[in-house]
Amino acid sequence: MTTTTPDVDAVVVGAGFGGIYMLHKLRNELGMTVQGFEKGGGVGGTWYFNRYPGAKSDTESYIYRYSFDKQLLQEYDWHTRYLDQPDILAYLEHVVERYDLARSIKLNTEVKSAHWNVDTALWTIRTADGQQLTCRWLVNALGLLAKSNIPDIPGLKSFAGALVHTNAWPKDLDITGKRVGVIGTGSTGTQFICAAAKMVEHLTVFQRTPQYSVPSGNGPVDPAEVAETKKNFDKIWDQVKNSVVAFGFEESTVEAMSVSEEERRRVFQENWDKGNGFRFMFGTFCDIATNPEANAAAAQFIRDKIKEIVKDPETARKLTPTDLYAKRPLCNEDYYETFNRPNVSLVSLRETPIEEIVPEGVRTSDGVLHELDVLVLATGFDAVDGNYRAMDLRGRGGKHINEHWTEGPTSYLGITKAGFPNMFMILGPNGPFTNLPPSIESQVEWIADLIAKADREGLRSVEPTFEAERRWTDTCKEIADATLFPKAESWIFGANIPGKKHAVMFYMGGISSYRQQLADEAASGYRGFALE
Ligand code: N01
Hints:
InterPro entries: FAD-binding_Monooxygenases, FAD/NAD-bd_sf, FAD/NAD-binding_dom
Number of helices: 17
Bound molecules: 3-acetylpyridine adenine dinucleotide
GO molecular function: oxidoreductase activity, acting on paired donors, with incorporation or reduction of molecular oxygen, NAD(P)H as one donor, and incorporation of one atom of oxygen
Keywords: FAD, Flavoprotein, NADP, Oxidoreductase
Distance between the termini: 13 Å
Number of strands: 24
């Protein structure tokens, strides 16, 4: 066994919400030498890349931010109920400046490989542009939804106009006055559709599966409300971190079928009027995501709204979902209303699938050529493990992460992986399914505590046991199986990528319980770990 001095104490890969805070913790608070790498041309992660019109957070502004800096919470304002992408990017850039982090982040630098060396107990990191360095600690903050899913559609590359994925939206692409087509109607697609319809000459929406969307209730926020919120931030964060989904409302404890039909509709209507997708799913009744009958009642309420809102009955029919209401819930300002506009048309790919893409546009099975200047792929992500698998990431014995993840991605606590000592993941597989910033903070703080302990005690390596990881995976699966989410085809279980194994990828027990488990693990002296 040899010990070599590493080039830096830690490497942090990714400069989004997770990487930025991790870098601050390790460098500014623990006094370590840290090198950050970011493949984008700026910081911000998701919020750097997803610049498509309409991109915004569907968590309310006041809790779509860090909570650790009380001063910053007082200083940084918001003006709308939800933050648009430029606002969030500006916020993250501000945080980077506030903590003088830019000098530690190499932009435009993709990490291609990370290999563990058992003899030196160091990681060797290589970047796409040929840099190499060693570190003791490796923190991957690669993004949960960061690897684009590009569908395999015949002729895709032959399109003569601008072909863009929403996750790689060019800074200079202006769709004003253009003929635009969009494939995909998830959170991204529906946000894009609402915004683009107001800008383009014509928008053609290619929809494979209809979606349940509820109003977001977006709009300006009164400065007096902002001031009041700032006074109550301690209480607010306490509530958020002790809730289930961390969206700032109290989750309901009432079962949908325990009340009369009239009362159910009243509650649905009340929450429809308040706005927010998570509120509609978790704030109305406690069992919408678990009880098929409750789920059907919520789904029917939304279907009735579609019929009421959409003027053309044929368009309304095509827009109406028939499956479970068990994907990540959507909310938008005016999704269904958008289809009443004369410049928006809907193509149901279930009825007329895309036959091929040609230089002029998209040809569907009914022989129609939809002529386009811009074709937007809002087709989502190879979520959760996509970016890990894309990296040449090798732990003990030179074993690639893919060799460990043949049955689906696993971790211990959504943060660590057996066989990968001194490596951490922010929002790794089987992490919490919540509003993300408070979960990210919980993970970053826990990682920093463990690293600090290892340094204090002169530990050479920390690594979870395979047994702890197996138990955590079983727990996540057990909780997920008690919900309806695995029964819906979505990215949450990897169902959106052809050939990807359906596997549990989230801890669905809520942020409060998740934080408790992190605290218990630390309090037990890290009983799920081998500390050497
Ligand atoms: O991706 P998705 P997303 N042919 O996978 C369709 C987060 N997010 O980017 O349903 C035709 O949900 C696919 O159709 P189907 C949030 O967590 C957050 O929209 O599979 N269509 C679907 O309609 C969200 O859940 C915000 O039949 C194809 C769409 O593309 C997550 O990101 C904003 C196709 C993909 O939907 C992912 O959302 C935006 C094909 N070959 C995103 N392949 C916030 O507000 C796919 N589709 C914070």
